[in-house]
């Protein structure tokens, strides 16, 4: 191997190492962002938007007279749950608490949205944090990395 080829190979390897380190540091910084959310009542129902570390999503709860049973739709920014108009708030909460939408393989980008919605809206717990793609509840200081 000529000295020039060797230097080029070493430079590419070093560039790869530095890019990997930079991506890992960026991921760590994004994970340390605070948990923020917004709950908005609308005439049709409820909109829950959140940002947790590197994740963000939305859960929409609506009622529509055209439906006879709950319908779950995956959207680009989260989930939309449409309930019949005759569902009470308690029935909607119970349905959201005990039913999980089915997610096709490879389409798991918003798999945590419903669990975060349950914790914040249904269980009144906004003490959440994220580490390596998993959502945890409780005090971050008691759950060391």
What does this structure look like?
The chain is an alpha+beta fold and about 140 residues long. The chain has three helices and seven strands; from the N terminus they run αβββββααββ. The strands form two sheets. A five-stranded mixed beta sheet has the order 1-2-3-5-4, with helices on one face.
* Integer average pLDDT: 82
Largest sheet: 5 strands, mixed
Note the overall shape: elongated
SS strand fraction: 25-35%
User: Helices and strands, in N-to-C order?
Assistant: HEEEEEHHEE
User: Number of helix segments?
Assistant: 3
Radius of gyration of CA atoms, rounded to a whole number: 21 Å
Uncertain regions: pLDDT < 50 for 5+ in a row? Answer: none
Rounded to the nearest angstrom, the distance between the terminal CA atoms is 44 Å
Strand order of the largest sheet: 1-2-3-5-4
Q: How many strands in all?
A: 7
Tally of discrete structural domains: 2
Helical residue percent? 25-40%
């Amino acid at each position: 191997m000529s000295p020039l080829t060797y230097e080029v190979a070493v430079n590419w390897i070093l560039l790869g190492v530095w890019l990997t380190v930079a991506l890992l540091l960026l991921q760590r910084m994004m994970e340390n962002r605070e948990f923020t959310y917004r709950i908005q009542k609308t005439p049709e129902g409820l909109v829950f938007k959140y940002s947790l570390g590197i994740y963000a999503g939305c859960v929409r709860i609506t009622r529509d007279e055209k439906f006879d049973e709950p319908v779950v739709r995956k959207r680009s920014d989260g989930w939309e749950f449409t309930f019949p108009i005759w569902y009470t708030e308690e029935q909607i909460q119970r349905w959201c608490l005990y039913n999980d939408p089915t997610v096709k393989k490879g389409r798991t980008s918003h798999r945590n949205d419903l669990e975060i919605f349950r914790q914040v809206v249904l269980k009144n717990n906004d003490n959440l944090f994220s580490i390596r793609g998993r959502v945890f509840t409780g005090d971050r200081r008691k759950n060391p990395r």
